[in-house]
Amino acid sequence: MPNLSLHPLWHTVMPAYQHFVGIVTHLLSALAFYLMLYKTPNSGKAFAKYLMLLQASITLVDLNFGLLASPVALFPVPGGLCNGIICTWFGFTGHAGITVMFFAVAFVAIALIYCFHYRFVSIGHILGQDSFEAPRHSAFRAIIFVVYTIPCVLQIGLYRNIDGGPLFVKTVRNTMFPFVELSDRKSGLSSLCLRPNSLSGILNYCGFLYDICKLLSTKRMMLLFVQIMILAILIVFYFVVYSFISLSRQVSLELNSMLEFVQIIQ
């Protein structure tokens, strides 16, 4: 079966499709902002601020896909071609577009957790047992922000070996090295930004993965994974215990109210 992502028509239609989808999603985001600003009841204004934060992060994702990076799939590399203004106008590599994507998706996850956290805290606030300004809630939001942004910050300087892709090709596929040597020497996905040479980009992408495996040993990856899992388990455990305590208090208040009502009737 032929690789459709190598057809010239693919590289003409897909960028236009990305820009069109970006325009439509930004119009929908503008409508969402209008409704949250002017059509939200006063009782929901506080929660609307968190929803606006979520919508703003989603808009950043749409902006990256529709204008900044405009990644186009080049099988088997997802987003192998960078047709956005950060690559075509400002001369950055595809690594910049990937980094922006990492931050944008992380901000969406952070904003979504903040929305759920607000709804969770609002139960205790209604019962008069909790406050949004409590130090533990501020600490939780700070921890969530740090946990989700650490991988994005690491992504900025994760790959710096410019000759990693060609070196990998020379070692594994020596017959193809002259072809890669004449192409853009920027390894990884960035080799496809300004000169979309498909075969060279795919081989350099393999070199990118090869160098990542060398830079991050198995022990370091396992240590990082264990640390993240421990933190996630602690956060989940905190919410489970706190939810159980809050629900128990709520049930106790309801039972006391019912008993007082029965005593009044009697």
UniProtKB/TrEMBL annotation:
Keyword Transmembrane assigned: yes
Lineage: superkingdom: Eukaryota
UniProt keywords, alphabetically: Membrane, Transmembrane, Transmembrane helix
UniProt key word Nucleotide-binding: no
Coiled-coil portions: none
Cross-referenced PANTHER family: SERPENTINE RECEPTOR, SERPENTINE RECEPTOR, CLASS H
Name used for this protein in its record: G protein-coupled receptor
Biological source species: Pristionchus entomophagus
Lineage: Eukaryota, Metazoa, Ecdysozoa, Nematoda, Chromadorea
